[in-house]
Amino acid sequence: MKLHGYFRSSAAYRVRIALNLKGLSTDHLPHHLRKGEQCAPAYLAINPQGLVPTLEDGTGAVLTQSLAIIEWLDETHPNPPLLPKDPLRRAKVRAFALAIACDIHPVQNLKVLARLRQLGVAEEKVTEWAAWANREGLSACETLVTGEAGPFCFGDKPSLADLCLIPQLGNARRFGVDVSAYPRLLEAEAAAREIKAFADAAPDKQADAE
Amino acid sequence: MKLHGYFRSSAAYRVRIALNLKGLSTDHLPHHLRKGEQCAPAYLAINPQGLVPTLEDGTGAVLTQSLAIIEWLDETHPNPPLLPKDPLRRAKVRAFALAIACDIHPVQNLKVLARLRQLGVAEEKVTEWAAWANREGLSACETLVTGEAGPFCFGDKPSLADLCLIPQLGNARRFGVDVSAYPRLLEAEAAAREIKAFADAAPDKQADAE
């Protein structure tokens, strides 16, 4: 398999954790997002959105969108599972993941921040925007897992929720958010730090890290 | 069951279509987003993000995030299915849905547009921003389904992809996007228009429509 990514992309980071947890190895093909390499025609031919990640499964199939890739990995390589068995519990885990993947990450990604700059928004206001999206979203996420058994977001094993949370906490810190306001999320992060699959997927461990 | 929504919310609209396709009836509890009713403490207690939709299943369970709700409905009420059986096909349908639910809708929702206005961005530039998010995203969506059998996004039956597409096309038109550039998406929309479950879920058919 081949994973098209970028060391700092939190969407690619989610998939790297999933692959590591499943014990699957892939070739990593970096695309430097700040240099616009994701807009090269050869890449757009496999990912018309010009986003990372993209997974090539080795049999000719091309998968896009991190959550769709992770659900596919979980369906085709069920161990260890990344979603609970019970439908209501699955819905809870997915809702948490989507609160990050829909309502935080796309509002503060490179493309949106670049668009703000094009509108003449000052750099400090751009950073404030990104911090706002993270603060507002993570604050809701903290509430979503308060009362859930730990140490991970939903119980004693990592799930899709943790795969989305850990990369997003990294973004929040980069934008200056005080994450100490989210003790339950930090508890999940501390538990994830103990797992090699998470540690090996971190941005600074990737070959294209700067 | 009770569905908390808003006639014009495209995320609530997706869930209304799913409920109708599954033949499930619910009480509809509208929250006027432009008046900020989604931020009332009683609503935040069930949906900490202050977003619609929220589904109460009647047994005390509370579900949030439209795609998590729809996956739950599909798992608990499998007929008619909203996802194919084959894992790779499921991944294609989910990737299309996520391209809308992550990368178009949240970038042009009420909350983000209000934030742009707070930054002093002029009204015409705010509309241009929303049109840009729709144009860029729908253009990629058109490519994702080009070559797929019709008339729906993925074949001869509606799927999660169509549930996300139809509401988004409505938004795109409201922001002045020329949707004639997406003939394959319009083919899916025309097929959906023939189905009562889609027609009954439309914003102008809801009790809170203005």
Shape assignment of chain A: globular
Biggest interface, and residues per chain? A-B, 44 and 44 residues
Mean pLDDT of chain A: 97
Percent helix among the residues of chain A? 40-55%
> Number of DSSP strands of chain A?
4
pLDDT < 50 stretches of chain A: none
**Assembly level:** homodimer
Mind telling me which CATH architecture of the largest domain in chain A this is? Up-down Bundle
Number of domains of chain A: 2
**Total of helices of chain A:** 9
Rg of chain A, rounded, reads 17 Å
Order of helices and strands of chain A: EHEHEEHHHHHHH
Strand content of chain A: 5-15%
Determine the structural class of chain A based on helices, strands and strand pairing.
Answer: alpha+beta
Distance between the termini of chain A: 24 Å
Q: What is the CATH T-level topology of the largest domain in chain A?
A: Glutathione S-transferase Yfyf (Class Pi), Chain A, domain 2
Protein name (chains A, B): Maleylpyruvate isomerase
Keywords (chains A, B): Isomerase
Domain GST N-terminal (chains A, B): 1-81
EC number (chains A, B): 5.2.1.4
Which helices and strands appear, and what pairs or packs with what?
The structure is a homodimer of 210-residue chains.
Chain A: E1 2-5, H1 10-22, E2 27-30, H2 41-44, E3 54-56, E4 62-64, H3 66-76, H4 87-101, H5 110-118, H6 123-145, H7 160-174, H8 183-193, H9 196-201
Parallel strand pairs in A: 1-2
Antiparallel strand pairs in A: 1-3, 3-4
Characteristic terms for this protein:
homodimer, 210 residues, alpha+beta, Glutaredoxin, Glutathione S-transferase Yfyf (Class Pi), Chain A, domain 2, 4 strands, globular, EC 5.2.1.4 (chains A, B), isomerase (chains A, B), Maleylpyruvate isomerase (chains A, B)
